[in-house]
Structures are given as structure tokens and as C-alpha cells.
Amino acid sequence: MTNTEWQLSGNMAERYEEYLVPVIFAPWASDLIVRAGLASGDSLLDLACGTGIVARLAAQSGVTATGGDINLGMLAVAKERSTGLDATFHSADAQRLPFEDESFDVVICQQGLQFFPDKLGALSECLRVIKPGGQAVFCTARGLEENPLMQAQVTAFGRHFGEETTGAIRAVCGFPDPDEMRSVFEGAGFGQVAVEKVVLDLEAEDGSAFVNGLMMATPVADRIAAMPPADRATLHDDILKGFGTWYDGSALRFPHSANVVLALRSA
């Protein structure tokens, strides 16, 4: 990702991998890989790869996977978790990809486009590195009102730390308009651009433990860690309450709503 509003430092990348990837990013990665129709022998770029879950899952199916991100902590975890797989990871700015023209059959980007300052430039770079006849598969979150995961955090963080601390979470839902998404892909030169609203039902069997992990893997994690234990416990409870009926007192089962784009490069 290229927007520094959402950059995890220190061991927060490991926390992101431990707590957030299994509940949020692995289910989405599996969905996007299926939509891309990847087959053994295909080449994939996992753009804004974070800890590399898309690349790792694809590589398990015989895909030659490459991950790119600007966050070195995330890349370190991705490399560690990909031992034995045909997956490599590189420092890569989406606006200036360090790859040759026509290198990949597919580019997948999970929850990254909304953070790119120059979306048109980044998508033009994606088009450049995709082989003729290849495709881009992107997903970005829809609005806060459709996503209790982000809404619960925004409400709780605003109450405890002030609205100015909610920007990074709001940015996750900062590019929700499907027409805007279609327009920027078409503007970059992609053809046959299809945008679909997709809702995955996500689940954390231990909702309380998930929220503890969530609090340690956000851009305000340092501030949360510095809170007195009683205040931190109140914040934890406020986030859980923010899920409303999606929390049953034990498990969290909540919808995660995104726009998914499939866009082709002409042969």
C-alpha cells in the first residue's frame, strides 16, 4: 500500500497475520483466487500483498506467485510464511512497479486500491505488467454503513481517542462507489470491466479474542497499549458492542461488503 495512514510497524505485522488474516483476509483471498480462475502454471502478482496471503494460497495450487508491498515489516512476515512455496516478495510501489512489461497472467489486489494516492497511475502500471489477455481482480470495501467491522472501530476509537484517530479505519471504506471504480479502470485502458457487490460472511469463533487481536493490529495500537488496563478493557467492550447483533456473546459473525472488479487486458 502507498498511503501511510495505514502502515503497521514493529511486530504489528505479526499480529496482523495472526489475528486478522485468518478471519478477514484469508476468506477474501480464497474468493478472489477463484474469481481469477488461476490455474497451475499461471503467474500472479499479489499487489499491496501485506503478509502475502493471496500469493501463498495461490502458490499452494501451483501458481507462480509474486507479492509486492511498500511495508517491509509485512514483507518480512510474507517471506517467512512462504517457505517452500513458489512465491517471492518484493518492495513495490503500486505507482512504479519494479516488474517487466507483460510479466503476469493476473494481478490481484485485496483492499489496496483505496489507499493508492494515484489510482489511475497505479492501474496503468498494472495494465503494463499484465500479459495480453490477462486480467486484474481487485476488491475494495464498500461504505462504513455496510461494514460493521470498520464501523465498530470508528465509533469506539472516536469515543476514546477523538475523531482525528479514525482516519485510517475510515480510509478502508474510502473508495466505495462502483461507478468510480469502473471509471478509473476504464481510464487506465482496461476492457470488459465488471464491478460486482460481494458480501462475505466472516466469523471469529472467539469474538473477544479477535477484538483483542484487532486492537493490537491497527494504526492506533501503540496508543491502545499505553492505556490503563481498565480503559483498555472498556475500549475492548465498546468495540464488541459496536457489532450489535453480529456478536452473540461468544462468536462474531458479521458481513464484510466489498466491490469486486474483474477487468481484462485486451489480447
TrEMBL record:
Pfam families: Methyltransf_11
Domain Methyltransferase type: 45-138
TM region(s), chain numbering: none
Listed Gene3D superfamilies: Vaccinia Virus protein VP39
Keyword rRNA-binding carried by entry: no
Gene Ontology molecular function: any one: methyltransferase activity
Keyword list, A-Z: Methyltransferase, Transferase
The keyword Methyltransferase is annotated on this UniProt entry: yes
InterPro entries, sorted: Methyltransf_11, SAM-dependent_MTases_sf
GO biological process, one term: methylation
Identification of the protein by name: Methyltransferase domain-containing protein
Organism this protein belongs to: Tritonibacter scottomollicae
